[in-house]
Specification:
Layout: E1 3-4, H1 7-29, E2 34-40, H2 44-60, E3 63-69, H3 75-87, E4 93-96, H4 106-112, H5 124-131, H6 142-155, E5 164-168, H7 175-184, E6 188-192, H8 199-204, E7 208-211, E8 229-232, E9 236-239, E10 247-250, H9 255-258, E11 264-265, H10 272-292
Parallel strand pairs: 1-11, 2-3, 2-4, 5-6, 5-7, 7-8, 8-11
Antiparallel strand pairs: 9-10
Helix pairs in contact: 1-10, 2-10, 6-7, 6-10
This protein binds NADPH dihydro-nicotinamide-adenine-dinucleotide phosphate.
Length: 299
Amino acid sequence: MAERIDGKVIAAEVLDKVKAETEKLVAETGVQPGIAVVIVGEDPASQFYVRSKGKRADECGFKSVTHRLPAETSEDALLKLIGELNDDASIHGILVQLPVPDHIDDGKVIQAISPDKDVDGFSFVNVGKLTTGQLGSAFVPCTPAGSMVMIRKALGTSDLSGLNAVVVGRSNIVGKPMANLLIAANATVTVAHSRTKDLPSVCRAADILVAAVGRPEMIKGEWVKPGACVIDVGINRVDDPSSEKGYRVAGDVDFDEAEKVAGSITPVPGGVGLMTVAMLMASTLISACRVAGKEPPSF
Ligand code: NDP
């Protein structure tokens, strides 16, 4: 039976370190990490994520501001707010909760955030730094960054030399940055997607298998190499009349099957999802350390 990679435990470790390092930074330099979260509209899932980000930031000892804008906010008004936050020295991380309403160009909004405060790591500058291996000065997207922390924990090493990694999914938010992080850690990386031929056999070659597809339980136990480290990024709602809410949350991996074959595996829920917010806090602290001229901690 595979070892469970517990997102709750590992995220709590990251947050404890952020808290301790924040106290140290404030005591030594007077710089308090500041994060601004911007949400446009009333989408309930987005509201939930924004609340949990604000709560975690408070717990970490950050200055935390949330800008809740009505759904009819114009693109110009949003860009103006981002400009103000870019100029605000007390803010080290800016996050615009996606998706934004259709009348706003999300690409334009993301690129308007100063790369020095782009803690989501979506700006062209940060994507370029990650792709060229300049991790020391980049911000890395939080979900793949959290997945890497879990891989290092599960395998007990940060050097993945000689290991084959397969990432299923090639999105800009998860798949591509994940692949770049694995390359930077010396893994031999294959990126699979909807046009990949014979996906099961591609997956079976993976010592590290990362699923970021958005299709519930698509990856079956027999696709998993015995002993592999399986990271399930997927968060999917599946109808379940037997549950109180009428649905359950499932990953992209068939957990019950894969658990019998893998060496280690993340559950859903309770896995990668919990790491994303923790890594956002880590990135904001790193940003504040850079501004204060202090060597940032590593996570
Ligand atoms: P996208 O929809 O942007 O990308 C999905 C990728 O999966 C695409 O590259 C697509 O290929 C590929 N794909 C789709 N169907 C298949 C298939 N049948 N076989 C092989 N590949 C396929 O999703 P995201 O990357 O944004 O998210 C992926 C999952 O991760 C979702 O479940 C999402 O909810 C979850 N997620 C979780 C987060 C967390 O905090 N844990 C954060 C972000 C996302 P192609 O490019 O060819 O279309």
